Amino acid sequence: MTTHKVNVKIALRHKVSNKAGILEKIVAKGIQLRTGSEYFHAELIVGDRWISADPIKGVYINPLHSVISDKWLIIDLGEIELTNDNYNKVIKFMYDRVGDKYDGLGIFLSQFIKIGVNDKNKWFCSEISSKILQLLLVDEYIEVVPHDIAPADMFRLSKHRIKE
Asked: How far apart (Å, rounded) are the C-alpha atoms in residues 63 and 142?
């Protein structure tokens, strides 16, 4: 059986850009206050691809940034080995999601009100990241419900992997 190794990292945002609009600043502060965490946004780095979702672009994949600023906490999950078939399924899932709309109502109903309602065809940042981590068979994420996961939860689930 042929396998494929891919390096995976979680990127958690804890500082809002100076260029951010007032709405982005309010949403970030609201998430931080609701979750009691400094983290308000999550992205996933799979190999040389950054994937996440935001209210403007929906789900997107960007090339790996060469410089990672101090606005991010990077949690390196190391190399994950998958069969080529499983690796290809993960990559296909990621690219099939590109352009899917942002689930603003879902984030409100599952994160702020906590009634677990979401749109299965829309995504928010920590939801898409958690789903991909499930597909990558990362132990801490196997049994989570992706739309119940906030960036703060991703930190809590993965903080033991941070190297001092």
From this structure: 26
Tokens 């931080």: give the residue.
32
| Domain boundary assignment for the chain | 3-161
Q: What is the DSSP letter of 108?
A: I
Q: What are phi and psi of 83, to 5 degrees?
A: -65, 155
Average pLDDT over residues 146-155: 94
pLDDT greater than 70 at residue 108: yes
DSSP character at residue 124: -
**3-161 CATH, one of 2.40.50, 3.30.420, 3.90.1720, 3.40.1000:** 3.90.1720
> Using the 8-state DSSP alphabet, how is residue 139 labeled?
G
Of residues 163 and 160, which shows the higher confidence score? 160
**Radius of gyration of the chain measured on its C-alpha atoms:** 15
**66 has a pLDDT exceeding 70:** no
